Amino acid sequence: MLNIAEYKTIVFDCDGVILDSNIVKTEAYYRTAKRLGATNDQAQALVDYHVRLGGISRYHKFDWYLREVLSQPVTDEAIQVWLDTFSEELEEGLSACTIAEGLQALKAKTPDAVWMILSGGDQQEIRDLFHKRLLPSGGLLATLFSGGLFGSPDNKDEVLAREKASGHLRFPALFVGDSKYDYEAATRAGLDFVFLSDWTEVPDWKAYCEAHDIQVLPSIAHLLNH
Question: What local confidence, expressed as pLDDT, does residue 137 receive?
């Protein structure tokens, strides 16, 4: 049985957990591909790959897309064009999407736990966003996460290994996510895991969570009851 108060570190994914931003990113992938000359089918192929690999860095997704769908050379310059265009498409949606309810109440319930964000999104983009978005109280969203705001190009396995080695990530620790990769990375690093279902884009999440005996809750607010 989950006891939220026992954890020394709580790691949160961003999209679909802290922010209702999964659909924002999915739509941004499609618009990015179209802006850069893709057909409808090619753009949809990128969207399908993105959804299938929830929680994985956009760097990997664009590498795959250039290589496998467009059959183009994968260079740093080519990847950067896609990254820059995607960031432009994404910015407006991220600035307006819903922030999960119950965050401040959960913070009050876990006063001794260090909170950190671990996202597949771009690290600087996340840091900029969390220093702009306001909580209902008026404080900045970033102030809740004293353990750091982490994202790509480092993947989640790399960040968890680094933060464990440095002693910043203390155990017992919990990872709160909404993708298969979140669960897999948490398990490899020895963290407990809770899957949030309300905003996930994993189509077979029910079967996956049942098969792996993963605890499921609808949203952040439901952690207050544990």
Answer: 82
